[in-house]
Every structure is written in structure tokens, then in C-alpha cells.
Amino acid sequence: MSYTQQMLDAYPADINLDRKQLAAVIDALTACAQTCTACADACLSEPAEQLPMLTRCIRDDLDCADICTTTAAVLSRHTGYDANLTRAQVQAALQATKTCADSCGEHADRHEHCRICAQACRQAHQALDALLPALQPAAGTGSPTRAAPQQSARP
């Protein structure tokens, strides 16, 4: 059992999502972010004459890594949950993983690191796509839950 699953299982309040599915998505996003970062670095280590062909791939790798990292963090927080914000972040991650998978896929036959990265992006994309329908705002509002209201500071 992953640490992500253990932390979700230990969360003391209700989570309106399937915890096992949520853990799998967070783990896929984390793996994708690491893979994209490593792929960008590997691209930069290719011979100098190949770098112009890899520029977009490197940019897409870095964008995807940042977006996946942020999405994993957003999905890991449940206090004051805002379904609209979470849904928008997941949609951004869906686009980033698709873009990066396509970009790396263009180089997959020449660069093993791009093949691996495209695969990680596709797996994260599939996990996100399966989660998206569950990210509907409660009662159509999408506002933060009332389970954990903001605490006002007292002098």
C-alpha cells in the first residue's frame, strides 16, 4: 500500500471520492512529474545538434511536470475542498499530460526516455480522465465544504 493510500485512509473526515482511486491518481501524477523532469534532463543530454528538435519536448516535459506536481498537491488536500477549483486543475493536467505524451511520442522511436515519458503521461491521463466525472460540485455550487470552516484569529 502506497504512502498516498495510507494518508488518505488516515484522513479523519469524509472524502467524497473513492480513496483508492484518488490514491492511484495522485501516485500516477507523481510518477509522471518525476518522469517528465527526467526526460527533460535526458533531452538536454542528447548531442547538441539534436537539441533544436527537442526544444518543444523539453518545454512540454517541464510544463507537464509542474502541472502534475500541482495537481497531485491539490488532490491531496480535502479540508475546505472546492470542486470547481479541483476540476479545473484536473482539466489542466489532462491537457498537459496529453500534450506531453504527444510531444514525447514524436521522439519515442529515437529516444527511449521519450518513449518512457509518453507512457507515463498516458497512464496519468487515463487515471485523471477516470476521476474527472467524480469531481462534480455538491449541489451545483462547487463552494468549499462547511466541514472545516476557516478559524478566525482571536487576539
Question: How is this structure best described in words?
Answer:
There is one protein chain. Helices cover 66% and strands 0% of the residues. With 155 residues, the protein is mostly helical. The protein has one domain (17-136): Up-down Bundle (Substrate Binding Domain Of Dnak, Chain:A, Domain 2). The longest helix has 26 residues, at 19-44. The chain is elongated and about 55 Å long. The model is unreliable at 140-155 (pLDDT under 50).
Secondary structure elements and pairings:
Blueprint: H1 3-10, H2 19-44, H3 51-76, H4 83-105, H5 112-131
Helix pairs in contact: 1-2, 2-3, 2-5, 3-4, 4-5
Distance between the termini: 44 Å
- Percent strand equals under 5%
Name of the CATH architecture: Up-down Bundle
Structural class: mainly alpha
- Weakly predicted, low-confidence segments: 140-155
Number of domains: 1
CATH topology, which one? Substrate Binding Domain Of Dnak, Chain:A, Domain 2
Largest beta-sheet details: none
- Look at the structure and give the CATH class: Mainly Alpha
Average pLDDT taken over every residue: 90
Number of strands: 0
Structural shape: elongated
The radius of gyration computed from the alpha-carbon positions, rounded to a whole number of angstroms, is 18 Å
Enumerate how many helices there are, as a single number. Answer: 5
- Name the helicity range: 55-70%
